[in-house]
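Tutorial sheet, problem 5. The two components below are modelled jointly, 874 residues in total.
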Amino acid sequence: MKRREPLNNTQLLTTIAVCIFAVMYIAAIVTGVQGFEKFQMFFDLLNDNAYLIIISCALSIVMIGGGINISVGGVISLTVMACSIFLNNSAPQNALGIIVTLLLALGIGLAFGVGQGFLISYLEIQPFIVTLAGMFLSRGLTTMLSVEPVKVSAQTHAAFYAFRSNKIEIPFLGYIAQNGNTIPAKLEIGAVVALLVVVLSFLMLRYIKLGRNIYALGGNQQSALMLGINVKRTRFMSYVISGLLSGIAGFVFLMHKPTGNASVAMRSEMDAIAASIIGGTLLTGGVGNVIGTFFGTMILATIQKIIGMSKLNDSWWQDMASGALLGVFILLQSVILSARDKAKAKKAGAVSIAKG
Amino acid sequence: MENRVVSAKELKASKQLDKDVVLAMRGIDKRFPGTKALNKVDFTLRKGEIHALMGENGAGKSTLIKVLTGVHEKDGGSIWVEGVEGEAHIHSPQEAQDIGIATVYQEITLCPNLTVAENMFIGRNKGQMVHWKDYEKRANEILKSLGVPARAKQELGNCSLAVQQMVAIARAVDMNCKVLILDEPTSSLDDKEVQMLFGLMRDLKSRGVGIIFVTHFLEQVYEVSDRITVLRNGELVGEYPISDLPQVELVARMMGKNLDDLADLEEIGQKKTAGEKVVYQAKDLSSSESKPFDFVIHEGEVNGFTGLLGSGRSESVRAIFGADRVTGGDVQVKGKKVNITKPHDAMKAGIGYLPEDRKRDGIIADLSVRENIILALQVMKGFFHPMSKKEMEEFADEYIKALSIKTASQETPVGSLSGGNQQKVILARWLLTHPDYLILDEPTRGIDVGTKLEIQKLVLKLATEENMSITFISSEIEEMLRTCSRLIVMRDRNIVGELTGDQLTQASVMKTIAGGER
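Model answer (structure tokens):
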């Protein structure tokens, strides 16, 4: 007996996010928003938002487990600042410095993940409060390291500068410039890392025990405990992963824009939460997946790009559009989910009437 | 009885259980701050039997289950489980699972956002990978062999409650449990679903699983069980084969009464015959906590709701008073249609209510005796019409004397008074508002015998002298028989009978609760 199961809530919400992204992107091309006719625009969205995609995955993972982490932006700023200072103070030609920088970024992320995870899981302190403290701490540490912006340039660290300039060029997705030359589409390393993070997170959540335990934890913590899941360890690990991903996001940010600054990735944790929600992750936990989150991030990025490219390129329009988008999405989600529940209840009712 | 009960000493000596015994609990003690929840309780479960664990709410059933499943640590006694050398020490639900004790709780303890298959295997696999294909194949096999109408790939939240429960049982069975605990499994199922569950239970029984069945539905006990253990007030009343304990006897054991023991009642006053005038009448009244019911009380009448704890007595009067969310029904007070949806409406209609849990719903421990007495009257008058201090003191004094409340002064915080005196303070609070209809829910619980009698006398006095209508609820059947001229009997949230006049005997009350002669 082969029969297809109906889409579950996670799949449904993900599908919605994918469709909305497609519609939006095609609409931008059709209505002739500047830049959208070239494929490079899609890569640019990835290049510019690679770090955001990564921390959105981080947020989705903790949110699926029923938690929250608002320290990710702060951890990025701290990572970028610490790495910038390190690079500027190490031998400019030494490629080993890049690896040490990466380890530094991972170390900072891991430290925040472990610390916050311990407080939240084992001392049972509210995740919002712990990560709020983490946010203040990381932002404070960033400013303590340097009040002035710290720029990594070709002079201060040539090896890193060369490394970050590597791009994957795909000629057939490019376009022909006015002088007849083919300009290939270019994808930065950071964007590749971001895509890799999405795929690995997806596989982890779907096929690794830890991932399934995170879903169970978000679905019903008490039940998860009764089912024999180590709830504390699962929650701890979800924060460790999100911390580690914040460190990776910091390194990706540094490759994209190699300047340490106290205002780096300001408010990005909020964008990441919005992207997760738009992508179908519920704040109540247990529902969501990172493919949806990826498209959620791209939806946010696209709308901001469209506004940026049109005449309304004041920052408040972007904010208002993001806000409106989030509102519409949540409304849409709750309407669809409640319609589903009603249909389900109706079906159940019909069954019991038939029985009676 | 054929099966001898093995003593703890013998168990220790032999270091193993009788051949057919899968679980033996001996002399289990459990204390909570202020109460002794279990006192030297014994429990024996044999292979392939369905063993009902019975008792009123608070008798210790849940505590015993929780000790067995490692949710609570026992304070004394010992547990033996088949296959475990020596005493079994169970400190967590996980450890209980590991030695073959599985529990299916009243609330479904599965994750609604995962699939049926995943719910059956999560938390059990040893490796790090999740093998979906494997899970789904095995899940479908088990579901099929047990006849559970669910598909492995289905999201659990999409299944009916009954099926979710059966999935939980399937999980337990697949874990080769020897002891399966079903804690109120039928409370949210309809009749057909209950039959499905019973079918599954009988199937498991034939496979040699010992099942502990906790329920408050008496008929269901007699439908599937082989044996009954009765607890009362944290103590073992006894273990009986089902054929030795008719339903009426079971009720008597649960309530701690002997059926033949119809001791002479001390006369506390003349019962009043009810007047003609209807004071309060409800038709199809229902609330979020109670099923629809009809109810009427006449002027000067004392009636009562009776039934086992948890049968819906308190919920019914809470619906009358508007203390729970009222969901429907027509209410008339003195012939006039009124809408009572919150306590304030009821108070305006002349209804007073003394709640069951005086600590939670009644007494404000930090306020003085005077303030507690004045409270209801003040609410009735509205906070914009304050009473003078002198007026309040006079009222307080009057009732402290009338009810002989033992307190140092009117300014003493109520929290420092004894339980009986606290109860009198709340009573005074309501009497001060001169209600036409007063509801007393367990006014005599936890207070000494002398005060109990005083309160019963007061109830009759109020009815005869002030023509007040009173609904009186008590767990002590004698108290109700002494005071009430009409008893409404409840079982499983339904009114199952009304007793008046000659029918007001302990025997007939118990028979009605048990559901006729069985």
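Marking note: The beta strands of chain A are 150-151, 167-176, 182-188, 259-260. Full credit if you identified this.
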